[in-house]
Amino acid sequence: MNDQRAGSGFYLLLVLVTPLTFFLHELAHWATGEALGYSMQMSLNNARPADGTFVSSIDAALVSAAGPLLTLLQAVVAFLLIRRSGKPIIYPVLFIALFMRAVAMLVSLANPNDEARVSQLLGLGTWTLPALVVAGLLAMTWNASRSLRLHWTVNVYAYLVASLAVTALVFINATVTGTPFVPVGSS
Q: Considering the domain boundaries, does residue 41 fall inside one?
């Protein structure tokens, strides 16, 4: 078997791309809200209107959808670059997009996240859009991993590194902004 393994630079890139992915995701929410006329607030793990409310459910859906759409675009671009170049160093950019949206789907068990809110607003139920997004990202990530011939341990270590990076990011963001770790209204 000719499976590839990843070096420390691969995992360091995963750590570095994590806050960038979160920033771009939240920036998409913020920019969409601003374009719709809202005064928006943003951190690395949240973007919302300064007064906390949207005028319409359509505005709420557009702002909620903007972040995942940009994260999906990031994943598609990374996937296409991997397919074209065959370079494993691009894989962390794709992997973190999957990891981020899968974690968001799990968070929706306590507090509906982006795709879950949009899915609810569209009358599709809570889990339709999150499941479709995560399934699409998983398919791209699986395909890229196979085409790069990455050893299964690469994905296990990437999961562990991403878990630590996201946990650190959420902790630092909550500490700096004073936001709660646990979503409001959950136990």
A: no
